[in-house]
Structure formats: C-alpha cells, structure tokens
Design goal:
Blueprint lengths: L3 E4 L14 H8 L4 E5 L17 E3 L2 H7 L2 E3 L6 H6 L5 E4 L7 H9 L3 E4 L14 H20 L7 E3 L2 E3 L3 E5 L3 H12 L3 E5 L6 H6 L3 E2 L18 H17 L2 E4 L14 H5 L6 E4 L16 E4 L2 E4 L9 H16 L3 E2 L2 E2 L6 H6 E4 L2 E2 L2 H8 L4
Parallel strand pairs: 1-2, 1-4, 2-3, 4-5, 5-6, 9-10, 9-12, 10-11, 12-13, 13-15
Antiparallel strand pairs: 6-18, 7-8, 14-15, 16-17, 18-19
C-alpha cells in the first residue's frame, strides 16, 4: 500500500503557513505517495484546497490522523493532535523539543516516530533540507520591510524640488542567512547599510551585498556555522564599538540567535538611550528573548522616542512563499526515505540519525533524552 501523507491545518494561534504547497504535492505524488489535506489547511497562506491536484481533502484532523502514515507539520504537534495519531505514525516538522518536553513524552508514549527538521546537520548535501535557512531568509527580508515601515525617514536618497533627502542609515547585527537577506533588502530599498558579525569570514559576504563591515577586532567562530560565546573582555569591546554605530543608525536590525539557546544580549538599554529620536530597532531574536534589553517579545515598545519592535514568527507573515520553501525542504528531507511509495528510511544515514527525535518508544536525540529523563544516557 502506498504511504499516506497527511497535511493538517496548523493549530497554533497566528501560524499562517502550511507544510505542503501544490507543486511539492505533485512531486510527492510522482513518488507514489497518497496525500490527505485537512479542509482549509492552506487557507491562511492563500493556498485553497482546490489548488491541490489529486489529493483527498478530509473534513477534520481526526479523519486525517486516522489514515495518515506520515505527517508534515510546521509547528510542533500539540498533545491533542498526538492522541489522534496511530501508533507508528511518522511526523516531520519543527519540534523545538527543549521547549516542549511534554510533547516529546507524549510521542514516546504513543509510539510516534518524529523528525525534528530544525536538527538537520549543516553539511553540503543537506543544504536543500535546511528549514532554518529558508525561513530565516524570509524573516530577514521582512525585517528590512518592517524597518522601512516604522522608520520616520526615507530609506533611499531622494532628489526633489524641495531639495535632496539623504538615505537612511541601517545597521544589521548578525550576518547569518537572516542578516544577509536583511542587508540585501535594505540595500535594494536604497539605504546605507553597515553590518556586524563576530565571525570574521562574513566580511566578504557582507561587502558583496554592498554593505560596510563593522570591524571590532573580535573573532568568535564556533561550531556548526554559529558563533561561540564571547569572553567578558571581548563582550565589553563589542559593546563599546557597537554603541558608536548604533547611535548613528536610523534602523538597527538584530538577528543574532543560536537555536535552542537564549539570544545573546547585544544592545543594552544605555545604547538605546543613545540613539537619535525616531530611530527603530527590529529585534528578530525576540522569540528567544531578544538581542536588546528593551525588547518585549511580540510587542512594539516606544522607549523615549525610540521604537523597539520584537516580532514573533516572522516567516508566517510571508506565508505563501514561506510555505513553498518549507515544503521543498521537507520534500528533500523525506525523498531518500521513500522508495516506490513505501517508507524505507536508512537509520544509519547521517541526516536521518541527526534529526530523529523519537522512535520505537524511545527518545533518540541525546540532549532531549537528558532533558526528559533527567540525565539518562
């Protein structure tokens, strides 16, 4: 029997993405996969049911989970969803296990095999599966748009009959995927852009996008493409130099985050106090606590005339294309595990071994197992 893939409507408030778009659905069907879509699953992303060809639309989540062998999710499954799943069901999507230990326990108890797609290793052959990068690109693009929207100044230089308007100054902190996309978008909007990252190798990427690299003479390359923690001396040097650049900026876009850990505090309250009236901070790290001391996750704060915006789930604001990119990541992830419509994972495969969270009634991911079992092996 061909494997049945279920696409539920996301339950979390404010989530507009869907885990499968029509084009990717067609690619899965060529692999012999039957697809079930919960009615209205794609509506928040402006992907109506009738845009999917050859799928079965089911009335609700109960009907979907009663038949699905494999489930694609965006947000981690909620406990009531897990209860509806049959033993042996496979779920792939964001799991964020460190935030959801009860969910992990429920999947273990229910005999659910789960893949935490955010754990895909950063190796060459897994780039096409990297949901963190694809969704960060959406967030970086949107951050520059938010900055332009909230800033009381034009981004581009304008020459008018009333005189010349100088371009806005934008500072991007963090030159990962989100930061680079923010730089590129701010530059396309005409702003003058400076950018900073503790990883010295990002200079070439920053300058290739037309921005100036802020050189603080602190190098903090870490494992997996992320930055290591700074020493106290390095942090103070960073703070002193950043205060100078932040004070001159009209918009600061902060993107420094490491998955599974609190965001580093880079922008102090005193730095915000030193900004020019009307300046804006877009803190893309708000979901993990924020890079700015003033940030309130999910809120827009007026701090003595400085706007500090802490948006949550930014990719969901560009739901159509974010869903399309996410679906392609999931397709590339599961493709090697599907053979003529059958589910045949190679558990020794590096990517599969790194991403499996629960399987056969056990927690397979080491750090999560320690979290759940209180230090067990």
């Amino acid at each position: 029997m061909p494997i049945k893939l279920g696409i539920p409507r996301e339950k979390r408030e404010g989530e507009r993405r869907v885990a499968l778009d029509p084009a990717t659905a067609g690619r899965l069907q060529t692999l012999g996969v039957d697809i079930l879509v919960e009615r209205g699953a794609g509506d928040p992303a402006h992907i109506p049911d009738d845009s999917y060809s050859g799928v079965t639309v089911v009335p609700d989540a109960k009907a979907l989970y009663a038949e699905a062998d494999l489930v694609f999710k965006v947000q981690p499954p909620e406990t009531d969803e897990i209860r509806l799943m049959r033993k042996g069901t496979v779920v792939a999507g964001f799991m964020l296990a460190h935030q959801n230990p009860e969910m992990v326990s429920a999947m273990v108890d229910g005999g659910i095999t789960s893949f935490a797609i955010e754990l895909v290793p950063r190796i060459s052959r897994a780039q096409s599966m990297d949901v963190l990068s694809s969704q960060a690109a959406v967030a970086g693009y949107k951050a520059a748009i938010m900055g332009a929207d909230l800033c009381p100044r034009f981004f581009p230089m304008l020459t008018t009959a009333a005189g010349t308007i100088r371009p806005a100054k934008v500072l991007v902190i963090g030159a990962g995927v989100a930061g680079l996309q923010a730089i590129a978008t701010a530059r396309r909007l005409g702003a003058m852009v400076d950018a900073y990252d503790v990883r010295a190798e990002t200079r070439e990427q920053i300058e290739s996008l037309g921005a100036k690299f802020v050189d603080i003479d602190v190098k903090a390359e870490g494992e997996g493409g992320y930055a290591r923690d700074l020493t106290e001396e390095e942090r103070q040097l960073q703070q002193d130099k950043m205060a100078e650049f932040i004070g001159k900026s009209d918009v600061v876009i902060s993107t420094a985050a490491v998955p599974g850990r609190p965001a580093p505090k880079i922008i102090s309250r005193s730095m915000v106090d030193g900004m020019r009236p009307g300046a804006v901070i877009i803190d893309l790290a708000a979901e993990s606590g924020g890079n700015c001391d003033v940030t309130r996750p999910g809120e827009t704060v007026d701090h003595a005339g400085i706007t500090v915006h802490g948006p949550l789930n930014v990719p969901s604001q560009v739901a159509f294309h974010a869903s399309e990119m996410y679906a392609k990541n999931l397709f590339n992830f599961v493709h090697p595990m599907i053979h003529e419509g059958d589910w045949k994972p190679d558990w020794e495969d590096e990517v599969i071994a790194a991403t499996v969270l629960t399987h056969d009634g056990e927690v397979r991911h080491g750090p999560t197992r320690k979290l759940i079992e209180g230090g067990g092996k």
